[in-house]
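Can't attach files on this board, so I'm pasting raw text. These are the components:
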Amino acid sequence: NAGVTQTPKFQVLKTGQSMTLQCAQDMNHNSMYWYRQDPGMGLRLIYYSASEGTTDKGEVPNGYNVSRLNKREFSLRLESAAPSQTSVYFCASSETGLSYEQYFGPGTRLTVT
Amino acid sequence: AQTVTQSQPEMSVQEAETVTLSCTYDTSENNYYLFWYKQPPSRQMILVIRQEAYKQQNATENRFSVNFQKAAKSFSLKISDSQLGDTAMYFCAFSKTGFQKLVFGTGTRLLVSP
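---
Top answer:
Structure tokens for the assembled complex are below.
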């Protein structure tokens, strides 16, 4: 099992460009999440999907959109990148129900110039 | 809203010694979960230990144990017999019961030296 995979691992964008971060899990989990990690601020939830077909905003959703393509895949899109979106992005997945462990992907380091 | 506070930005310890990382949280919930995650230089987030608030017994996982003080809203992590591989950022996190969204603290960077 690969667990949670993310592509790409690194990306540099210019201000105003768009891109989609891809995430896939092979653990048959219902719930998936996108976090961003900034220095000194820990991880903050951007969007989550409790089950296939549903998505909800987290703590910092502005400037992002998500798509739960199917049970395995959950993508994060930046329509018009801004320097404030320079961060490390993590995707995670978990079972639904009680607070099960979240399994994290390896992260994507995004730089917006 | 829930908040998680880690007041120690950095800690250091020598190999084989014991170190305790602090975490406090604020919530009006009675049932919830608390977690410690480890993030080594590889950047991978790894669950270290989990505590369910309704359980009075402190969780332990090999060299890792917690001191959960519900009334004080404190959740510290004790690492015994520290190893070089324990060098990492450690994040405390909170989740309401049945609600998987995690709220993270700002992290403590732990350096284990020979």
